[in-house]
Amino acid sequence: MSDEQKRPEPVDKIVQETARKAASNPLFLASALESYRHGAGLDEAALVKELGIFAEDLPRLALCRRPDSADSIAFRRAVDAICKRFSIKPAQLANILRKAEAYEKITRRPEADPYLLAARDYEEDPLEPPSSDGPQEKDHE
């Protein structure tokens, strides 16, 4: 946050509540910021500091459309546009978005991914040590 940046207007409760709800929608930057914050073990104040923004800007930033990492050119353009609006270093935001995506992949439940679900053909209790007989197959009757 540079000294010449002007503190933004306070955020009203509707924007704050909308940003909070957007955290559960992967189309919004809020979801990536929440994934990153949770994965990195940061509180909101630490995230604001890492981004180098005012706390009042976090809900507005969270309501931006999440850049699509599948298209590197579009990703770069979207990150640059967001960074220009909020005076964030593009490398900083891009790094946070990449880490958020990694945290999401690590914590995703197999049941949410049809490819991983198809690969699971037996039940296993993760708290029990594996038996010497190997995994128990499901009864497919």
Let me know the largest β-sheet: 2 strands, antiparallel
Output mean pLDDT. 83
- Compute the CA-based radius of gyration: 20 Å
Provide the helix percentage: 40-55%
Q: What is the structural class?
A: mainly alpha
Strand content: under 5%
| Order of helical and strand elements | HHHHHHHEE
Largest sheet, order of strands side by side? 1-2
Indicate the overall shape: globular
Unreliable runs, pLDDT <50, ≥5 residues?
A: none
Number of strands: 2
Oligomer: single chain
Intertermini distance: 63 Å
* Total DSSP helices: 7
Q: Your description of this structure?
A:
With 141 residues, the chain is mostly helical. It has 7 helices and 2 strands. Strands 1-2 form a two-stranded antiparallel sheet. The N and C termini lie far apart (63 Å). The mean pLDDT is 83.
Write a brief caption for the model:
The chain is mainly alpha-helical.
Topology at a glance:
Elements: H1 13-22, H2 29-40, H3 44-51, H4 58-62, H5 72-86, H6 90-107, H7 114-119, E1 122-123, E2 136-137
Antiparallel strand pairs: 1-2
Helix pairs in contact: 2-6
Labels describing this entry:
141 residues, two-stranded antiparallel ribbon, single chain, globular, mainly alpha, 7 helices
